[in-house]
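Here is a complete protein record:
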Amino acid sequence: MNALPVRLTVEQAWTKWHDDKDATAREWLVVHYASLIKFVAGRLAAVCPSVSTPVTSSRRECSG
């Protein structure tokens, strides 16, 4: 990984990732959205049934 910090705007990062599949832009986006992903995953974990229970259908739905 590059040791120098990269300064991008969200729009620049998405454009670089979309157009060129730029690895630096991808990493920047992952770091930028990490807290949002952690928040959403926590909310889903709070409302979804436990994964340890057997799944009887191919689709599992969350309540709430």
